[in-house]
Amino acid sequence: MPMSVPVAVAPAGLSSGTNRVILLLALVAFGSASSMRVMDAAIPRLATDFGIGIRHAANVVTVFAVAYGCLQIVFGPSGDRFGKLRVILFACVCGSLASAACAFAPNFAVLLIARGLAGASMAAMMPLSMAWIGDNVPYDQRQPVLARFLMGQITGIAFGQAAGGIAIDLFVYTWRVPFVFLAAWFVLMAILLLRLVRKPVHRNPIGNAVALGLVAQCRSVLVRPWARRVLITVFIEGIALYGPFAFFATHLHIKHGLSLGLAGSMLAAFALGGLSYSFGAGRLLGRLGEAGLAQGGAVLMFVGIAMVALGPTSLPTSLFALPGLFAMGLGFYMLHNTLQINATQMAPDSRGTAVALFASSFFLGQSTGVALAGLAVERVQTTPVMLAGAVVLLLVGSVFAAMRRGRVG
User: Which H or E run includes 55?
Assistant: First the structure.
C-alpha cells in the first residue's frame, strides 16, 4: 500500500557520494554483525574452559544483546541531534577498545563485562546506518538499497559464526583470535568515517527531532499505532528466531556429532540464504509486495527450522541442515527486511529514534529468547526449543502480513 513520502529524500538517482557512504556503512555493519555472532559456536567450549554450565556460558550472547538493545535509546536520539555518521564514528572507536578487551579477558567475569561493553559500543551502527539511508534514499527505492546494505551484516554473521567455530577447534584459547581482528577492523572503519565527518556528503533530516528531549523523541514515535505494531512484531521475531538460533551449532554438535568448528561453519548457509535475498530483493518485492514477502518469509523459516531440528542422524547432516539453514536465511531476510523498511518510515521526523527503537525491540527480544532457550535446552534439549521457535515465527509473520495488507498510508 502507498505510504507518505519522507520529509527529506535523495534525488531519484543516488549520487556517487551517497553510494560510497552506503558501502562504508555496510562494512561497519559487517564488523558489528561479526562481533554479535562470533561467540555462538563457542558456548560449549567456554563452558568447558571456564568450568561453567552451558546456560551460564550462553550469557556471552545474552549480555551483548541486552546492552545492544538498551543503548539504542541513547544512540538513536543522539544520531538525530548530533549527526548519524558522527555517532557511528564514536561507536567504532569504542567498539575497537571493547573487542580488544574481549581478546585479552583473563576470566569469564571480565569477558562478560567486555562483551557487554562491545554490545553497548556497537548499538549505534546498524540502526543509525539504516536511518541515514532512510534520510537519503526515497521510499520507493529504499527496500532494495537496504537489502544491498544488509549484505554487510549478512556476510558479517557468516564470518563471525565461521571464524568463531574454526578458532575454537584449533587450540584451547584461540576463540580470542577473532576479537583481535575485530579490534583492528573498527580502527580502520573509524579512520574512514573520520574523512566523511570532516566533509559531510549527507543531508540533515528536516523535522523537529533536534528540539525534543530524549523522552519526548521516544514518545513521539510510540504514540503512533503502526509504530507500536511494528515494534511488537520485531520483538517477538527476535525471541522466536535468535533464541533457538544461538543453540543451532550446539544442536548439530550434540545430535549429529559434528565438531563445533564444522557446526559453526555450516551456519554460513543461513547467511547465503540472506545474500540470495539481497541480490533478488527488488524482483521479489515487485512480485510479492511487502505482505507477500512477510508471509513467504515466515513459511520458509518454519520449513527450514523443521529440517534442521528433525533431520535424521542416520543420514548425512548436510542433506537437511544446509538447505534448511539456507531456507531460514532467505525467509528471515524476507520478513525482517520488510519490517525494517516499515521502521524507516514510522516517524520520518525522528527517524534515528524510530529505527533505534526498532533495533532495541529486536535485540531485547533476542536476549530474552536466548535466556529462555538456555533454560529450556537444559530441560528438554534443543529439538523442542527449535520447533517452538518455528511455530511462533510462522504465526508472527502471518499476522504481520495480514496487518500490512490492511495498512493504508
Answer: helix 54-57
Q: Are the beta carbons of 87 and 202 closer than 8 angstroms?
A: no
H/E run at residue 325: helix 318-343
Report the distance separating Cα 114 and Cα 117, nearest Å.
Answer: 5
Residue keyed to cell 533495533: 359
Would you say the C-alpha torsion 230, 204, 82, 95 has a positive or negative sign?
Answer: positive
Cα distance between residue 92 and residue 99, in whole Å: 10
Domain ranges of the chain: 16-405
| Superfamily for domain range 16-405 | MFS general substrate transporter like domains (1.20.1250.20)
Task: Give the DSSP H/E element, type plus range, for residue 237.
Answer: helix 225-245
Low-confidence ranges of the chain (pLDDT < 70): 1-14, 168-173, 198-214, 260-261, 313-315, 317-318, 407-409
* Model confidence pLDDT, tens digit, residues 119-133: 999 888 988 998 888
